[in-house]
């Protein structure tokens, strides 16, 4: 029967997938916000439209840096860093693609009321934004999915570490 110490030690494998995922998903959402900002230039509130996605991305990068300091205490080998980076990047790419696809299917998250323009008076002139009274607030972000995916990144990195997934893959392709 395995001792509790060995079981806990086994659970530590794959922990580096989490911080690498957080950094990669944060950077991916900042990149996505910049892409959407470029596409919507000239529309109502175009300078503010995707600031929420960028701020969320910065928050995830910060979370990744904090968790990196903790995860390094559990795993320190070069293989663990490579495994964590590869898995974190792959899962983050899937989550960023999920956000992009969800936004493409459902459209941007919008605010305002159609037909009700919100004009402002500046230096004695009335300025009205283009459009029908609605504006883009952000992409279709889902922070819950983004957080739950960090658990998936850990589970995949853990499975690869425990099963030696890279060695098994190398042996099967060598035959």
Total E-strand runs = 4
Identify the strand order in the major beta sheet. Answer: 1-4
Number of helices: 6
The geometry reads as elongated
Estimated helix fraction:
55-70%
Rg value: 22 Å
Cα-to-Cα separation, first versus last residue = 36 Å
Q: Give the rounded overall mean pLDDT.
A: 81
Tell me briefly what this model is.
With 175 residues, the chain is mainly alpha-helical. It has helices at residues 4-11, 17-39, 51-71, 78-106, 143-163, 165-174; strands at 109-112, 120-122, 125-127, 134-138.
Outline the structure in words:
With 175 residues, the protein is mostly helical. It is built from 6 helices and 4 strands, in the order ααααββββαα. It has a two-stranded antiparallel ribbon with strand order 1-4. A two-stranded antiparallel ribbon has the order 2-3. The longest helix has 29 residues, at 78-106.
Topology:
Blueprint: H1 4-11, H2 17-39, H3 51-71, H4 78-106, E1 109-112, E2 120-122, E3 125-127, E4 134-138, H5 143-163, H6 165-174
Looking at this protein, list some descriptive labels.
single chain, 175 residues, mainly alpha, two-stranded antiparallel ribbon, 6 helices, 4 strands, disordered N terminus
């Amino acid at each position: 029967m395995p001792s509790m110490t060995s079981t806990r030690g086994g659970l530590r494998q794959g922990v580096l997938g989490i911080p690498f995922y957080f950094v990669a998903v944060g950077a991916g959402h900042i990149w996505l916000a910049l892409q959407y900002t470029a596409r919507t230039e000239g529309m109502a509130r175009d300078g503010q439209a995707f600031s929420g996605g960028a701020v969320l991305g910065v928050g995830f990068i910060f979370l990744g840096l904090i968790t990196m300091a903790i995860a390094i205490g559990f795993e320190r080998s070069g293989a663990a860093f490579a495994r964590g980076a590869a898995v974190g990047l792959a899962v983050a790419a899937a989550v960023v693609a999920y956000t992009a696809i969800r936004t493409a299917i459902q459209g941007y998250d919008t605010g305002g009321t159609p037909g009700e323009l919100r004009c402002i008076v500046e230096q004695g002139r009335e300025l009205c934004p283009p459009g029908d009274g609605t504006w883009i607030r952000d992409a279709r972000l889902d922070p819950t999915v983004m957080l739950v995916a960090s658990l998936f990144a850990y589970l995949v990195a853990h499975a690869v570490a425990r099963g030696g997934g890279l060695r098994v893959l190398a042996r099967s392709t060598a035959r």
